[in-house]
Design brief:
The chain has 415 residues and is an alpha+beta fold. This is histidine kinase.
């Protein structure tokens, strides 16, 4: 049996079972994880069969060439497992050994071990771009007719067989190139998946930060307003405790009720922080509770009135809460900074076609523009909350004295 009849079947051994194919699924993973074992099996099979091929052949001048061909076979098979570590060096050494085979053996036969050149072309195509793998395939394809020429002249091989072997080399290169392209495609998809995962993590952190900021604003509004009311009422109660004990007792009841309301709202916010899934939460305050807010402020000693202009329309949850918090924060600031000259504060809620304007004014002489909380988050949080709804906030002194806060908020989808 001559060596030229075997490359196709032997090449299938490596292409179908070698560790270079990059196949998907459990078989492909097993081959990649046991690449050295696969290489050893390929070398053992090729070298063992090669011994039966090279035995009977002699050179054209009658000289036995068994030892020379055996040495070249050992060199080719020994280099094959090293191709992963130094592909260019190993390929060059293999090509030189194949050329030496032609010179030493006189082209008496194509070694079965020459198949490792085909396998190496496949390996080069799986690892490198065509600018590298194509020259490698061309060199092997050009060497093949040169090595087969003496066999053609002796009638041991036909032109069709040589063409078939060249096609095998082309097939090995094509398969390797397809494997490389597929690997690159999978790697690109994996990179994209990792990038999307990183983007999702960043987006989740942004959402979490926004939620923390929202909850911080809610807690500030709840605590600042409630504590402000409680301090004012408690001061009044302490003043009237000896002269008007009944009114002082009523004031302390109001302090208690205000504290309970604040605690209930804080528990609701903490419930949001603790639970991943939203539960049955109490409704968020909105424009419907403005009248009660003004009444509570008036009961705490703040001379404030509420005026509604235009036809009230339902607001979306975000704008509805924003309007309430603007009024709540503005009244807290009035109570803390308007000063003793304050005689009147007013809340005006004006409905327009697609927006609502809320205006809180006072005639005090204090620094009502300052934040009621030491941290200074009141007006800043007010602006952030309204801006999140697409609205604007303006705060500053009035020409005739006093201070005003004006917020314009779109009605949103609730219209």
């Amino acid at each position: 049996m001559s060596g030229h009849q075997q490359p196709d079947g032997a090449a299938s051994t490596d292409a179908g079972g070698g560790a270079d194919v990059g196949a998907a699924g459990p078989p492909g993973r097993w081959l990649r994880e046991h690449a050295r074992l696969v290489d050893a099996v390929v070398v053992a099979v090729v070298f063992t069969y090669n011994l039966f091929v090279i035995g009977p052949f002699t050179s054209p001048d009658g000289r036995p060439v068994f030892l020379a061909q055996l040495a070249i076979s050992v060199l080719l098979c020994g280099l094959y497992p090293l191709r992963r570590r130094s592909p260019f060096t190993v390929f060059g050494a293999m090509l030189l050994a194949a050329c030496a085979q032609v010179l030493v053996a006189g082209g008496s036969t194509l070694l079965f071990a020459d198949l490792v050149l085909v396998f190496t072309v496949h390996h080069m195509a799986t690892r490198f771009r065509w600018t590298v793998s194509v020259p490698a395939a061309v060199l092997v394809a050009a060497w093949l007719p040169l090595a087969a020429a003496p066999m053609l002249r002796a009638g041991h091989m036909t032109i069709d067989a040589v063409v078939a072997l060249v096609l095998v080399i082309a097939w090995a290169w094509t398969w390797g190139t397809l494997v490389r392209v597929r690997r690159a495609h999978i790697a690109g998809l994996q990179d994209r998946a990792r990038q999307l995962e990183r983007e999702r993590e960043v987006q989740a952190r942004i959402v979490a930060a926004r939620e923390r900021a929202r909850i911080a604003r809610e807690l500030h509004d709840i605590v600042a307003h409630s504590l402000g009311v409680m301090v004012v009422v408690a001061d009044g109660a302490s003043t009237k405790a000896s002269t008007e004990p009944e009114r002082a007792r009523e004031a302390m009841v109001r302090v208690r009720d205000t504290g309970r309301t604040a605690m209930a709202e804080m528990r609701r916010m903490l419930h949001i922080l603790r639970d991943d899934e939203p539960g049955e939460l109490s409704p968020q305050p909105g424009t419907a509770r403005l009248e009660r807010l003004v009444e509570d402020s008036r009961a705490a000693g703040l001379p404030v009135a509420l005026t509604v202009e235009g036809d009230p329309v339902p607001l979306a949850p975000g704008p509805d809460l924003a309007v309430y918090r603007v009024v709540q924060e503005a009244l807290t600031n009035v109570r803390g900074h308007a000063g003793p000259a304050l005689s009147r504060a007013e809340v005006v809620l004006r409905y327009r076609d697609s927006e609502v304007e809320v205006r809180v004014t006072d005639d005090g002489r204090g620094d009502a523009g300052a934040d009621a909380s030491p941290g200074g988050h009141g007006l800043v949080g007010m602006r952030e909350r309204v801006a999140a709804c697409g609205g604007t906030v303006r705060a500053g002194g009035r020409p005739g004295g006093g201070f005003e806060v004006v917020a314009v908020v779109p009605t949103g989808s609730g219209r």
